[in-house]
Amino acid sequence: MAAGLQVFGQPASTDVARVLTCLFEKNLEFELVRIDTFKKEHKLPEFIKLRDPTGQVTFKHGNKTLVDSRDICRYVCTEFPEDGNRGIYGTGSLERASIEQWLQAEAQGFDAPSSELVFHLAFAPQLADHGMAFIPDEARVQENERKLQRILAVYDEILAKSRFLAGDEFTLADLSHLPSSHYIAGSERGRKLFTARRNVARWYGEISGRESWKQVVKMQSEHPGAFE
């Protein structure tokens, strides 16, 4: 297998989906080792041998092991700069600095409210479908909707001046937002958060239509994950 890249986890995971999208953008071959933590497969001996102190292995390249999905994307782009989408992590120091600012903004601002909404709008209904008790917290949903609305209002202003977040080319800045946005936009309630703003709607429509992301969505539909 080219490059000997391995990804551990389920495509349904937002972190795994982020990494898979990056690998598809870079046109790199990899092995997906499906580890279902819901079924305690992360405690299997062969998995424990690979993990780092956090016990959350998601990526392995030779003797190198990384667990944070954004760091994995940075590593892939740095390690294989000439493969696939060469500009996804910037082609110069200024471009990369802008992308890094957006990666931090996504991790520190967008991620928390969007992850809450992913659980309540996408994953919680699956729990109920599988007979697991779950009482929706409407106040919490509304709180995180308000937080995300404020963030997307800022995004809308930025996207009025550029095609993508870090400029006129698709980069890791945009890619990193895809997994959670996809789950939120999968519900009618969540979709309105993106369609309510013209520039955000245009941007999300474009990034979610990329072939790399379509491949990930196809993998998710074939293997839904922990609830199956």
Automatic annotation (TrEMBL):
Example of a GO cellular component annotation carried by this entry: cytoplasm
GO MF annotation: an example: glutathione binding
Keywords (A to Z) from UniProt: Transferase
Ranges where the GST N-terminal domain occurs: 3-84
Record GO biological process: glutathione metabolic process; response to herbicide
Top-level taxon: Eukaryota
Reactions catalysed: RX + glutathione = an S-substituted glutathione + a halide anion + H(+)
EC numbers, comma separated: 2.5.1.18
SUPFAM superfamilies named among the record's database cross-references: GST C-terminal domain-like, Thioredoxin-like
Domain GST C-terminal span(s) in chain numbering: 92-227
UniProt xrefs under CDD domains: GST_C_Phi
Protein family (similarity comment): Belongs to the GST superfamily. Phi family.
Role noted for this protein: Conjugation of reduced glutathione to a wide number of exogenous and endogenous hydrophobic electrophiles.
Name recorded for this polypeptide: glutathione transferase
Source organism of the structure: Brachypodium distachyon
